Amino acid sequence: MAQLSDLIIGHPEVASFRELIALVEHAGTSGQMFLEFDVKPDYRDTPRNWQWVLEAAFTRGADT
C-alpha cells in the first residue's frame, strides 16, 4: 500500500500537484495495489477534487 504522505516526503523535488499526479501514476505502475490518502497535498494548484484526480491517476498507472 502506498501512502500519499510517503510519496510526498520521499520526493521533495515534486513542487506542484501536476508533478504529484505523475508520481502517483508511477506508483500505480510499480506494483502498488492501494493508495491511502492520509494527508491533503499542500500545493498551490491542488484542486478541490484532488482525491478523485489522484485516484484516477493511480488507477491509470495500475492499468498500464
From TrEMBL:
Domain of life assignment: Bacteria
Name of protein: Sulfur relay protein DsrC
Species the sequence originates in: Ruegeria marina
